Amino acid sequence: GLNEAGNDLEAVAKFLDSTGSRLDYRRYADTLFDILIAGSMLAPGGTRIDDNDKTKMTSHCVFSADEDHDTIRNYAQVFNKLIRRYKYLEKAFEEEIKKLLLFLKAFSETEQTKLAMLTGILLANGRLPAAILTSLFTDNIVKEGIAASFAVKLFKAWMAEKDANSVTSSLRKANLDKRLLELFPANRQNVEHFAKYFTDAGLKELSDFLRVQQSLGTRKELQKELQERLSQECPVKEVVLYIKEEMKRNDLPEPAVIGLLWTCIMNAVEWNKKEELVAEQALKHLKQYAPLLAVFSTQGQSELILLQKVQEYCYDNIHFMKAFQKIVVLFYKADVLSEEAILKWYKEAHLAKGKSVFLDQMKKFVEWLQNAEEGTIPFKLTVFSSLLAIPF
């Protein structure tokens, strides 16, 4: 029947539709999919059982098709139509693709390419779940470099149908976003190798995606370790050394560190529930850790992120609403925040959260900074200390 239909894929789809009413595809699903993809039944490992018997093979299959995207997309439509018609084949088809991925070593390079294109197209249109890609992490195809090469072709086909966001979103949902390095042997499982390999292959979007995911994972681990060290009241010098080593080892920029450092510092204490007492407690606590924050706020971007984090924290924790200005001034005095950063935050870089309250709190201090900058007031914070009611 398939041979009679020839290259007319509409005829193939109709033949499969009508045959399903006579045959129970449940019993023959794996055989059916073997034939449609490889042209004959496959033995364990991927060799063709009927390789020498041409009467039991068909040349009208994915592996014998032209190696171009449109042709393989037409074959994908055959599978879509068949599974829409016989819904019970859905799970069997997923298992078939997972099996074929394990057999990649037995297929020729062009057969691997066509299977990669077919899989990518079917992933793009939702016929297959991204979880099937776990088969690519098998040692024998990873060591040979087949897994990474196959993945590149698959992702290209996927992105030709949709876009990079479709790919990355599906990978996240399947919890595969942090496993992409497993496409490579253990001695090459690093971000640099992955990024170069995928960028050279024209998939820079996935290189960038992996960098972001790895960075997020690293930050979570760093935050967890920092929290532990702060709760144990480790000396500031030791904490600084640890953070700098982690930044260097994981290529973390300063702006990425300052925010989580603030979070850890604020989580390291049990805060008083009384508003009139919490400000004093906060200033005492933050004064202790100001030298630590100063080390990692040497860039304008880092300072702005810290200011926004302070603003967000004071807004989300109502007892801190009136403490915002005092915290900022403390950080200014301790060389954590610069005059330029505070003015930029005030003029344009503040968040919407509690905007009117915090800008009003900061108004007089900002005016003082501007006047001091213009030289109309001696540039000494002591002039303003009584107004701010902070002991200097």
Keywords:
single chain; 392 residues; mainly alpha; 67% helix; 0% strand; disordered C terminus
Short description:
With 392 residues, the protein is an all-alpha fold. Helix content is 67%, strand content 0%. The protein is built from 19 helices and no strands.
Largest sheet: none
Query: What letter string, H or E per element, gives the SSE order?
Result: HHHHHHHHHHHHHHHHHHH
- Taking pLDDT < 50 over at least 5 consecutive residues as the criterion, the unreliable ranges are 377-383, 386-392
How many strands in all? 0
Written account of the structure:
67% of the residues lie in helices and 0% in strands. The longest helix has 28 residues. It has 19 helices and no strands. It starts with a helix and ends with a helix. It has two domains: 173 residues; 109 residues, no CATH class. Helix 14 packs parallel to helix 16. It is mostly helical.
Produce the secondary structure layout.
Blueprint: H1 2-5, H2 9-20, H3 25-38, H4 69-85, H5 89-102, H6 109-124, H7 139-143, H8 146-161, H9 164-173, H10 191-200, H11 204-231, H12 236-250, H13 254-267, H14 275-295, H15 300-316, H16 324-333, H17 339-349, H18 355-374, H19 382-388
Helix pairs in contact: 2-4, 3-5, 4-6, 6-8, 10-11, 11-12, 11-13, 12-14, 13-15, 14-16, 15-17, 17-18
